[in-house]
Amino acid sequence: MPMLTKDQIQMRDPFVLPREADGIYYLYGSTDADIWKAKGIGFDAYRSKDLVNWEGPFPAFRPTPTFWADLNYWAPEVHP
Fold it and tell me: Judging by beta carbons within 10 Å of its beta carbon (0-12, 13-18, 19+), is residue 68 exposed, middle or buried?
């Protein structure tokens, strides 16, 4: 998988979860292309060892067909 820099990642309201035991940072945020009007796709995540080069995207959340919301997925906050 190619590495990306922050300039290559489309994201709003980023949230970084450091995993000190692994030496890896996980980046989450609002990644839908049209967060205001289109149906919500979900959230993607990226991982990095240096906060400069990132692997991903990896699907972090995808709604099931019966999920209670389908618009405006915004600003995920993640805790270990």
Answer: exposed
Residue 66: per-residue pLDDT: 92
Q: How far apart are the first and last CA of the chain?
A: 25
Q: Rounded to an integer, what distance in angstroms lies between the CA atom of residue 38 and that of residue 14? A: 20
Pairwise CA distance, residues 76 & 52, whole Å: 21
Question: In sequence order, what E strands does 1-80 have?
Answer: 12-19, 24-30, 43-48, 55-61
Q: Name the DSSP letter for residue 4.
A: B
The edge-to-edge listing of strands for the beta sheet with 55-61 is: 12-19, 24-30, 43-48, 55-61
Query: 15-43: per-residue pLDDT in tens?
Result: 999 998 999 999 998 887 777 887 888 88
pLDDT for res 73: 78
